[in-house]
Design the sequence.
């Protein structure tokens, strides 16, 4: 197996990985807090039936829904744009022998500039906003998208 050479531009993209990962983690914390606020909102909690618990790191979270249990986590990768975060949601399912297993149901991409890409041709949203809570339409749409993807039948 032959590998392509690494260019100077590619090396430059990974010149500050610790700082970039910390920035992305901070954006992930804000994003998770926004989603949790939507699910915890008094008018939506009963209607949506989602319970969200954030881990001590503020990044990882667990969700209990009518569709089952979901966990989330952040990992990092490099691309032509530099270091980015991949925020993955995994649903607990039964394995072939009935044992617990996890299936990825959705993922978000977070840039070091704080943009969150939901996939497809959707415009990115900002991980942090000055207006949070029930007037946060982007977080509401993101939370409902997550709930849909958790409940979607795998094909």
Sequence:
């Amino acid at each position: 197996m032959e590998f392509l050479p690494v260019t100077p531009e590619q090396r430059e993209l990974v010149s500050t990985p610790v700082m970039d990962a910390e920035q992305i983690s901070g954006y992930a914390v804000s994003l998770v807090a926004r989603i949790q606020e939507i699910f915890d909102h008094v008018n939506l909690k009963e209607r949506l039936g989602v319970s969200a618990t954030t881990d001590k790191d503020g990044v990882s979270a667990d969700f209990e829904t009518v569709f089952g249990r979901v966990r989330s986590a952040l990992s990092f990768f490099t691309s032509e744009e530099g270091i980015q975060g991949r925020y993955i949601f995994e649903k607990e399912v039964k394995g072939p022998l009935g044992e617990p297993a996890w299936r990825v149901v959705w993922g978000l991409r977070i840039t070091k500039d704080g943009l969150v890409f939901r996939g497809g041709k959707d415009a990115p949203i900002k991980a942090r906003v000055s207006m949070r809570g029930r007037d946060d339409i982007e977080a509401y749409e993101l939370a409902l998208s997550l709930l849909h993807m958790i409940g979607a039948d795998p094909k």
Observations:
- The CA atoms of residues 35 and 143 lie 6 Å apart.
- Residues 8-151 form one domain.
